[in-house]
Amino acid sequence: MSYADQVFIENCRDILENGVWDTDREVRPRWEDGSAAHTIKKFGIVNRYDLRQEFPVLTVRKQFFKSALDELLWIWQKKSNDTHQLKSHIWDAWADENGTIGKAYGYQLGVKHAYPEGEFDQVDRVLYDLKNNPASRRILTNLYNHHDLNEMALYPCAYSMTFNVSGNTLNAILNQRSQDMLTANGWNVMQYAALVHMMAQVSGLEAGELVHVIADAHIYDRHVPIVEKLIEREPLPGVQLWIDPEITDFYEFTTDSLKLPGYQGHPLEDPIPVAV
Fold this sequence. Notes:
By secondary structure, the protein is α+β, with helices and mostly antiparallel strands.
C-alpha cells in the first residue's frame, strides 16, 4: 500500500465519522446549479511524509503528476498569474477577462525585496539561504499578503512553505488554510513533495520530511459518496521518484525532469461535481 493512500484513507474516515457539518451556516462556494456547497470538516490535521521512503502519491484515485508539476512550476518557477502559461485549465474558472488570477500565488513569489546581500524574490531568497545560510530558521515563503488580498481571484489555499535543514537533510512544512480532500489533497501533497526534492537537489541536500498542516480539511456534501467508494478500494504499491540528477539549477527543471516509474492508480469512474 502507498503510504499516501494510508494517510488519505485515515483522514477521510476521520472527517466522515467525526467531522462537523456547516449546513447551519451561509457558505461562499456554490455548485453549478447555484445551490450552496456545504462541507463536513476536521480542524487541524497534520500529516508527515518521509520522502526518503517513497514518493507520496495516491493510488486509490489516479493522479496526474505531470499536470500537477506543471502548476507547481507555473507558481514557483515562472512566478506567474497568467493562466495562458498553464497547460491545464484548472484555473480558468477564477481567471479574469485577461486570463490572470490577479496578485495571487506566483505573483507573490516574484515580488522582489531588498536584503543586505541584494534584491531577491521569495524563491530566490530560499535558494540563496539553502546554499549560504542552511542553519537559518528564517527560510520560508508566504503568499498570504493582506495588502493584496482584494486583488486576488482566490485567497491562497496552500500559502506558506517553511524549509529547515538538519545535517544534510532538507525538511519542509506546508501550511494550508483549506483543503478539498477529494480534488486537492493528493494533488497538493505530490506537488510540494516534488518541490522539496527539487530544492534539495539544487542545494546539495537530501530530501527528508514533508509535514502538511491543514487548518480546514473538508469533504463537500456532493463528494461524500465518491470519497466513500475511494476509501474502500484496495490501494496499489507505492513508488519512488525519479529526478534528473544532472540538474543543479532550479530554473532548469521541466515537467519531464521528474517521473514516477511504475506508478499505477485506480481510475475515478464517477464525475466530480465542481464547487466554485
